[in-house]
Amino acid sequence: MAPKIHSSADARRLARRRLPWMVFDYIDGAAGTETGAARNRAAFDAIDLTPRVLRDVSKRSLSVPLWGKPTKAPFGISPMGMCNLSGPGADLMLARLAAREEVPVGVSTVASTPMEKMIEVAQGHAWFQLYFSGDGTGTFKLVERAKAAGYETIVLTVDVAEVGRRPRELRHGFTMPFKIGVKQFIDFALHPQWSISSLIAGKPQMANFLMDGYDFDRTESRAKADFETLKRLRAMWPGKLVVKGVLDVDDARMLKAEGVDAIQVSSHGSRQLDSAPPPILKLAEIREALGADYPLFYDTGLRGGEDIVKAYRQGANFTFFGRVLQFAIAAGGEEGLRQLWDVLKSETSITLAQVGETRL
């Protein structure tokens, strides 16, 4: 029986107890001294929501339009690498959730499950997240593969010119694929529930690179990507193109001018640049610069329903949860994920009622 989860903090606390230290710190960790993550949280906490009274808020809806279609929740699932580390089959749990809630699940370039299987299980509710790396040869092979698999949206992540240094995972010797030494062996032995279930399921792999002509190196430089790269991608991709990892207003204006369909304001969960400004504050600036009608998405630092309402008030058209969903899986498997998702929807709905609104 899955433990009762009442908040994302519950999910994180339980996950910390159940996951090997190496895996927990890979999921939870942020760049540098992690002050960036703390400042983003502080920025969220500093945003007030003023209660309004004596308004009929008895009939509330969490549905929002996304590419012209209604969703059942005002948030989706961020692309996250190697999700199956949080629990065997985690990727497919997220895909099933996306299908049920009619929201997008981001399928990471470094997902543990092939992109073809993910979009099938998600019943089409999947966006492929793309990293540019090396000279781009393998990158554009992945684009063609996504097109053949039926993806209609690609999310180009642009805030990883080089992989950020995250000391917590480095201290544990975290690498992809895994290299097991004495330290890691002891860590796994002290967390037998996770270790046995993972052993039975098989070691998580970066499934999208199990193809001819592509050897992926997580640490390979991604620094060659530029606006010419974007133009090439725009020319070859007929569907929706989202650019994720934008915090600068001038960058946002240039991306809009290049025909990008939406921008995702994000600091990569504070995992890249410790000194990055709080994305929740940059969201409002970019909204003002691009006008009311341009699609803006948001991730980074979301922990509950009040955060969702704050993000929409700052100008988001849609939002995405990330690591808290992995914590829920680590805490209670698919049932834990369902519990937390329901909590997040309930928190959002209650917050709407408190501030006198019926829709986001």
UniProtKB/TrEMBL annotation:
<dbReference type="InterPro" id="IPR013785">
    <property type="entry name" value="Aldolase_TIM"/>
</dbReference>
<keyword id="KW-0560">Oxidoreductase</keyword>
<feature type="binding site">
    <location>
        <position position="244"/>
    </location>
    <ligand>
        <name>FMN</name>
    </ligand>
</feature>
<feature type="binding site">
    <location>
        <position position="129"/>
    </location>
    <ligand>
        <name>FMN</name>
    </ligand>
</feature>
<feature type="binding site">
    <location>
        <position position="266"/>
    </location>
    <ligand>
        <name>FMN</name>
    </ligand>
</feature>
<keyword id="KW-0288">FMN</keyword>
<dbReference type="GO" id="GO:0009060">
    <property type="term" value="P:aerobic respiration"/>
</dbReference>
<feature type="binding site">
    <location>
        <position position="108"/>
    </location>
    <ligand>
        <name>FMN</name>
    </ligand>
</feature>
<dbReference type="InterPro" id="IPR037396">
    <property type="entry name" value="FMN_HAD"/>
</dbReference>
<comment type="similarity">
    <text>Belongs to the FMN-dependent alpha-hydroxy acid dehydrogenase family.</text>
</comment>
<keyword id="KW-0285">Flavoprotein</keyword>
<protein>
    <submittedName>
        <fullName>L-lactate dehydrogenase (Cytochrome)</fullName>
    </submittedName>
</protein>
<dbReference type="GO" id="GO:0010181">
    <property type="term" value="F:FMN binding"/>
</dbReference>
<dbReference type="Pfam" id="PF01070">
    <property type="entry name" value="FMN_dh"/>
</dbReference>
<feature type="binding site">
    <location>
        <position position="157"/>
    </location>
    <ligand>
        <name>FMN</name>
    </ligand>
</feature>
<feature type="binding site">
    <location>
        <position position="271"/>
    </location>
    <ligand>
        <name>glyoxylate</name>
    </ligand>
</feature>
<feature type="binding site">
    <location>
        <position position="26"/>
    </location>
    <ligand>
        <name>glyoxylate</name>
    </ligand>
</feature>
<dbReference type="InterPro" id="IPR012133">
    <property type="entry name" value="Alpha-hydoxy_acid_DH_FMN"/>
</dbReference>
<dbReference type="GO" id="GO:0004459">
    <property type="term" value="F:L-lactate dehydrogenase (NAD+) activity"/>
</dbReference>
<dbReference type="InterPro" id="IPR000262">
    <property type="entry name" value="FMN-dep_DH"/>
</dbReference>
<feature type="binding site">
    <location>
        <position position="166"/>
    </location>
    <ligand>
        <name>glyoxylate</name>
    </ligand>
</feature>
<feature type="binding site">
    <location>
        <begin position="79"/>
        <end position="81"/>
    </location>
    <ligand>
        <name>FMN</name>
    </ligand>
</feature>
<feature type="binding site">
    <location>
        <begin position="299"/>
        <end position="303"/>
    </location>
    <ligand>
        <name>FMN</name>
    </ligand>
</feature>
<feature type="binding site">
    <location>
        <begin position="322"/>
        <end position="323"/>
    </location>
    <ligand>
        <name>FMN</name>
    </ligand>
</feature>
<dbReference type="GO" id="GO:0005886">
    <property type="term" value="C:plasma membrane"/>
</dbReference>
<feature type="binding site">
    <location>
        <position position="268"/>
    </location>
    <ligand>
        <name>glyoxylate</name>
    </ligand>
</feature>
<feature type="active site" description="Proton acceptor">
    <location>
        <position position="268"/>
    </location>
</feature>
<feature type="binding site">
    <location>
        <position position="131"/>
    </location>
    <ligand>
        <name>glyoxylate</name>
    </ligand>
</feature>
<feature type="domain" description="FMN hydroxy acid dehydrogenase">
    <location>
        <begin position="1"/>
        <end position="360"/>
    </location>
</feature>
